[in-house]
Amino acid sequence: MGLKTTPNRGTKERGTPMLTDAQCRNATCPADKKRVRLTDSGGLYLEISPGGSKRWFQKIYRDGKETRLALGSYPTVGLTAARRARDAAKLQKAEGTDPIQARKVEKLKRVNPAGDSFKVVALEWFEKQEPHWSEGHAVRAKRQFERDLFPCLGERRLAEIEPVELLATIRKVEERGALETADRGLLLARQVWRYGVATGRVNRDITADLKGALSPYRGKHFAAITDPTRLGELLRAIKRYKGGPIVRAALQLSPMLFQRPGELRGATWTEIDLEAALWTIPAARMKRSKDGKENGQPHLVPLPTQAVRILEILKPYTQSTGLVFPGERQRDKPISENSVRTALISMGYTPDIQTWHGFRATARTMLAERLEYDPLVIEAQLAHAVRDANGRAYNRTTYLKQRQEMMQRWADYLDKLATGADVIELKRA
User: Fold this and answer.
1) Are 256 and 410 in contact (CB under 8 A)?
2) What top-level class would CATH report for the domain 3-98?
3) What is the CATH number of domain 228-418?
4) What would the pLDDT profile of 87-142 be if each residue is shown by its tens digit?
5) Mean pLDDT computed over every residue of the chain
6) Which CATH class is domain 118-210?
7) Which residues are catalytic, by number?
8) How many Cβ atoms are within 10 Å of 258's Cβ, its own excluded?
9) pLDDT interval class at 6 (50, 70, 90)
10) How many angstroms separate the CA atoms of 15 and 256, rounded?
11) What residue segments make up the domains of the chain, in order of their start?
């Protein structure tokens, strides 16, 4: 950005002051004029209003357009002080600093005494966002700031950080093979810079300069079997599983109920109503925003008769713990996600073939393609917040009657696959 002060267009020799203290002191503005300007050297001038106020300004050109830098009011800022301020601004320009931007930053520092370093701005942004996030998301974001971004950039002024510095910081994360983490780190940095722009700490978002500079990260899809024959083989392998009753029950219920692993393994007996054949998952345990966890409705999971039987068999073993699936060593905590993962691997189903979370994709695909259920009903059972044709976010407790019928039909379908039957589903009337 090119900056220059207006040349001295007065009649006096270059360097000769154009104003005196007496002129400044005695200057007035006629009532019929909006203002009067008394010009000094180097673009400095004193502006007088009809009301008697007197203010110092310096003409500055930015990108070929005239603007001005306010230097204070007279007589608080006298002629000599005004010239010193003018000379200081000219020195900033000579050093490549925009005097107007520098003035804004100084004002912001007074408003934000903590400063304008990357760490200060990042934590300020984080504090504004945290109330709207889930606890897990907030912990992950804070941890990434502290581990990956603050050590290199934390104490640097946001406005002084160059794109190459940010890139070098993010590439350190890349170099340890954490492409997803690097991608999230850049996203966090982008939010900080945008907040910095919005609050006047910096002129622009430098993260835009890093587009295409990182190795592309493609989110992982959880492996899932969607072929009826192969799914039947997996179901038969689950029936033959020789492990403990708790993990075996979790294996049996996972494809049948297709809820998230964390929601299933964290289930409590107070959530299960075997007589009503209904599992009520509290909003606090669902994958939702902080507001959704605190104020959202519970997720209802209809239990087919097969699921009720499995839970009735399991209840005497685990009821005393309060948990449906307690750990073998720590009975006050649920089984780990690794428990079912290890069980699947022991049966030959490695993470590239079938994952615990992948049972959700299995059900979603086969319910739509094989049993031809309405996607809205399926998504309601998956606890996905989608919108209907009219753009309204539907209530997760709706479609309960349809979901009860769907879940029973799905469990019956899985039983047929497990027997090796050649199942041909016809379109429903």
Assistant:
1) yes
2) alpha beta
3) 1.10.443.10
4) 888 888 777 777 777 777 666 656 555 578 999 999 999 999 888 777 778 888 99
5) 84
6) mainly alpha
7) 260, 287, 357, 360, 384, 394
8) 23
9) very low
10) 89
11) 3-98, 118-210, 228-418
